[in-house]
Amino acid sequence: MACQICKENVCLTRIEHLGVRAGNLPILEDVNLHLHCGELTAIVGRNGAGKTTFLKALLNEIPHTGTIIFEGENGKKPTTHPRFGYVPQKLFVEPGSPVTVEDVIRACLSKYPVWLPPRKKDRELVQNVLSQTHTEKLINRRIGDLSGGELQRVMLALAIHPVPDILLLDEPVSGVDRSGLKLFYELVSKLRHEYDITILLISHDLDIIARHADRVVLINHGVAANGTVEEVYNSAPFIETFGHIVFNKTEHF
């Protein structure tokens, strides 16, 4: 698909010879990847293989060697500080907390004190943000009362306001039921097709990845395999790590 907004946003992320060390211990070595807008790239690997370290390096949160280049259309370099959206695995909420969905969104997007009655413009902003993931009806619900799927759709709404260049999904549907999972990935599909953003998914659910990812990267302190689902799942490094996975990629976004 041709990128619709790439003239201003990131169309290609070039990761070249990326390395991360902890003292003398190499955590990642010589990682070379291209992440394209409009594609969902899944990152897989054993615990401790370097997946989280890779994310932190991409976000420039830890020292690293090598280069990360964010390019626009036709190689144009739009920014050294792209917009990232992030959906974590879980949002920890104090049991019994009276904090509502509206409170969380307002606290993140407005400097107006949350403990004061909401202004009309603030409430309209919250409604607009939630509408992107069809969660407007949850505005008055307490965060602690939401199902796992509802909570992740609220977090997705926050992650895409404003629309990011790169959306990071870190085990975003862990513990979510099948219905919630389906809704979540339908929304991710909409984002990918409407905005052509780069989506990076870290997940241990190999079945979900098989059905939804465009590309898969197996990390084992470096790139052990990289390609389509079929190519990576049938590669020797993947089989050595996870065994033979029987999958049927019949469901699509």
Describe the SSE topology.
Elements: E1 12-22, E2 25-36, E3 40-44, H1 51-58, E4 65-71, E5 84-87, H2 101-109, H3 120-131, H4 148-159, E6 166-170, H5 178-195, E7 198-202, H6 206-212, E8 215-219, E9 223-227, H7 229-233, H8 236-242
Parallel strand pairs: 3-7, 3-8, 5-6, 6-7
Antiparallel strand pairs: 1-2, 1-4, 8-9
Describe, in plain words, how this protein is organized in 3D.
There is one protein chain. About 30% of the residues lie in helices and about 25% in strands. With about 250 residues, it is α/β, with parallel strands linked by helices. The chain has a 6-stranded mixed β-sheet with strand order 5-6-7-3-8-9. A 3-stranded antiparallel β-sheet has the order 2-1-4, with helices on one face. β6, α5 (about 180-195) and β7 (about 200) form a beta-alpha-beta unit. It is globular and about 55 Å long. It starts with 11 loop residues before the first strand and ends in an 11-residue tail after the last helix. Residues about 1-5 have low confidence and may be disordered.
